[in-house]
Amino acid sequence: MRKTALFLMLVLVFAVCGTAFAGKEIKAGFIYVGPVGDAGWTYAHDQGRQEMEKLPFVKENSTYIESVPEGAESARVINGLVRKGANLVFTTSFGYMDATIDVARRNKDVVFMHCSGFKTAENVGTYFGRMYEPRYLSGIVAGKMTKKNVIGYVAAFPIPEVIRGINAFTLGVRSVNPAAEVKVVWTQTWFDPGIERDAADSLLDVGADVLAMHQDAPATLQAAEARGAYVIGYNSDMREFAPNAFLTAPVWHWGALYTKLAKQVSEGSWKSSQIWDGMKEGLVELADFNPKVPAEVQKIVADKAAAIKAGTFHPFSGPIKDQSGHVVVEAGKTHSDGDLLGMSYFVEGVQGTIPK
Known about the structure:
This protein is of the alpha/beta class.
């Protein structure tokens, strides 16, 4: 009898503890700037959303709205998710920043996480990744694989995020090939395969034999594949679009971060912060190499990746010069996070201008 009572008591204790551990149910909403089928930025975020849904207190209780234009109009869409019961909202592009702050101000009981922005509030945090780390590594690959010393870069918008990536890539290129130049063409788009393809072709027309890109579609990869050039991808492993041309790609792994944030909100431990994780935390990394990348090049990259993770090397350590030859980071010094987040100049080795 006493054994039965003890058993029932233990069952009750485990049930209560289990309920407490589970925390409150999370209903998450995501705002995407492109379609989930873009194979790039939005695709990577949606893979992270699906990983988060494996949590028992989220299950399949999340939703997304794709291809939402940036700017003031996005506030209506964000507010629509809140009205439908979302208590955790992810807005996944820089241009949603002000709209996120505006909606959050009127919905204090909802947690908002904005990707790549810098504005916070009591119920708004920001998150991003140190993509410049694998960008630098991919630059090493490009610098070693080019034969013409002309590398093309198809760039989206002239904001610090994109400029920082171009500079990190170029620093990686020039660390192994000081004679190489990186030519930049701007598209003023995140996702427009036609415009991106035209930009990529224009770079190939002027002699680029390796392409890189900061875009959401695989159009740059397809251009390289069609014309016998090499290409560095972005966002996700896009090698299926260019099996011969693809060398590697800086890629995102949002799932672990989304899972961690959902747990914090569920258990009530979430606090507004500005997250900027890197390779050490597993948010960003370099995709597997094409076998065409020589073993000695892979070894150089692996050693540098280990140094980045260990904190013994930083891609933006001096000496660094800008396009005019002026020293912007002296030897022995490193750009601060503030400098990186507000970056508005090109480093030596970049051919192109930054539109105002």
